[in-house]
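Per-record layout

source: Cladosporium halotolerans
name: SCP2 domain-containing protein
length: 181
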Amino acid sequence: MLKRATLIKGLELLQRVGKLAFCRSLLIPTLSSPNNELTNSPSPITSQYSTVTMSLKEDAWPSSAAFDAIASALSDDSERKDAIKKGGAIFAFTLKNAEGEQKEWYIDLKETGKVGKGAAPEGKSPSVTLILPDAEFAKLISGKANAQKLYMGGKLKIKGDIMKATKMEPILKKAQTKAKL
């Protein structure tokens, strides 16, 4: 078992060199047992280290910063519940960058209201996948384009439940106020 001092020294070192934000929502167990071993009960000793969030943005996909804005919009409990009620699905986004590379993100509006990298949360599959170029996603998020026109113009491809895809636009509008693209 790790001792309290060892863990705290390691966390302080990571924090100093800026490497503490290396994973999304890393929950670090707290130290509160009498024998200084790791437990999962709350402790004020490591409360400053309890949750670390990493950006969903990928430099090669500039519009991916919008996923951070969406996550931020969904961080409010009432907004998240409203979005889950309206969305009712897991939305996957496959974005193609200028170099032709593809990357996936998801928005779980079926259960958790979480936003993450990949096609869907672990053990789940998306209800609908929207496939489009990064530049077109930036226009969609900023309100300079709408999904229906992108789809009709062949710039947006949809796999899965097309009717669910129509429920995504109001959710994206919430992020428009937070996205800086």
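summary: The chain has two domains: 4-52, 62-176. The longest helix spans residues 4-16.
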